Amino acid sequence: MRGTRLRTRGEALVWLVLLFAVNAVFISDITWLELAVGAVGALLGAVCAPLVRGAAGARPGGWARGPRTVRAWPLALLVETGRLALTVVRARGGESRAGEFRTLRLGPGTGAAWAGVALSATPGAYVVDVVREETDGDRPDQEERLLRVHRMTGGRSALERALGAEDVR
């Protein structure tokens, strides 16, 4: 029980720091009022995040491809932002281009929760669902993780390759 409380408080503290940092990055004028509003919003998010995760039964999953993904993410963000800008310019010129929904199978040892956040944190894709397929009926820890993703462009991104994600359908 004590370990669970400590883990929940640690998770809330991580959320508090991350949410406050993101808010501080995106505010235009750093004033005490803006910082106070950001701190209250971050605190609210930090308190709710463990509760939502617990209600959803979500687990972060394996971190096997975490370091590779962290290294690939900044470049993927820049490349996909460029693709988004190009798509907007083409749309202004009359060329319409729709994205597509795909199902991705994550590489072994890759957690669906954090992989979904990494993919959704770029403009090129966002995760709309996590699908679980049991590979061995008696061992839920052996289930495959499938992500239903909307992609802006058709090809696999560098981030998907870093996650070891393969198209299923």
Structure explained in plain terms:
This protein is α+β, with helices and mostly antiparallel strands and 169 residues long. The chain has five helices and four strands; from the N terminus they run αααβαββαβ. The chain has helices at 2-26, 32-56, 66-92, 112-120, 158-163, and strands spanning 100-105, 125-133, 144-151, 166-167. The chain is globular and about 50 Å long. It starts with a helix and ends with a strand.
Describe this structure in a few short sentences.
With 169 residues, the protein is of the alpha+beta class.
Helix percent reads 40-55%
The low-pLDDT segments are: none
Main sheet attributes: strand count, strand direction, barrel closure: 4 strands, antiparallel
Number of strands: 4
Number of helices: 5
What's the end-to-end separation, in Å?
42 Å
Radius of gyration: 18 Å
Order of helices and strands: HHHEHEEHE
Element layout with pairings:
Elements (H helix, E strand, L loop, with lengths): L1 H25 L5 H25 L9 H27 L7 E6 L6 H9 L4 E9 L10 E8 L6 H6 L2 E2 L2
Antiparallel strand pairs: 1-3, 1-4, 2-3
Helix pairs in contact: 1-2
Features:
169 residues; 54% helix
